[in-house]
Amino acid sequence: RAVPGARRPVVKFSHKQSGLAGDVCLDNRLALFNTRFLRLCADTDPRVRPLGYALRLWAGGQRLAGEGGGTPPQNGLGDPKRGLPILGVADPLPVSVSGPQERAQVGGWDCSFPRDAAALEPSGNQQSAASLLAEFFSYFATLDLGGLLLSPLEGRALPRPPPEALGGLRPGPLTLQDPFELSHNVAANVTARTVSRFVRCCRDAARLCRGPEFLQKSRRGRPWGVMRLLQPGNRADGGNCHGKFLIQVPLRPPGGSGGVPQGEASAAVGFVLRELLGCGCEPEDTGTAPGTPPGDECHLGGGTGGSRGEFGT
Hints:
The protein has helices at residues 29-44, 48-61, 129-140, 192-209, 212-215, 225-229, 262-276, and strands at residues 2-3, 10-14, 21-24, 105-106, 109-110, 148-151, 156-159, 246-250, 308-312. By secondary structure, the protein is an alpha+beta fold. The chain has a domain at 2-215: Poly(a)-polymerase, middle domain (Orthogonal Bundle), CATH 1.10.1410.10. A 3-stranded antiparallel sheet has the order 1-2-3, with no helix packed on it. The chain has a two-stranded antiparallel sheet with strand order 4-5. A two-stranded antiparallel sheet has the order 6-7. This is STPAP polymerase. One of its GO terms (biological process) is RNA 3'-end processing.
């Protein structure tokens, strides 16, 4: 389905067998530089990937992601007041250490930054990723986002200038400046209601991070620490998952039109969780009788012949 009226015209599509959706966009070179910059951030410090994944998963569990009013950015900015940031790629972007072959301009915007993380100074911050996650929530729980300009280029939150001084950038309830295309607010479609919910959820998460459920292991076998934080907002009791975090994967029953063999789907999801995201996965006791043919049950959990798999991580 073509969407010619989008800011960047795209063709959206869906894969019938898996239900996965995607889109195709041509001649959007700025997006390529954004992707390369995120790769640089991830290569700079091993805590970046788990922090980004955790924030996106938390936002989905709180139903902040995918709402009609848009999604607040989960990893656009850390704590600008920190004395020792974990990334040396901002404040401002490290154009000065870019080599001649790394200098680039796209549409008049400067997209120069080093491609090799080794060119950047390592961080002196030794905090755990869980501690940094807690500080993220504490910081954003106190901000008046309506009066700020979040600038990854500067690495901090700035008082929002008057509209005539924004250089074409369209402010909104949440104003997050693209690190390269400075006239683009990447959160322009986020509504005031969603921003209010985002701050409220950050406040609740910060309170949980200060409590015993986050700081010490549960004696009753309940989810604790980061796993307790990442439970969906409508499952405060953790869904009786005995200290594990369950990822539900909707699948069409095998045998029908467009059905997906659960064994193959589970193996694919398990590969992504283990090899790409670095998660530890455990088999779940599904009550399936020994000798069940492969493909009739999820390798990492889920009921035989059911419509979804569950992965305990």
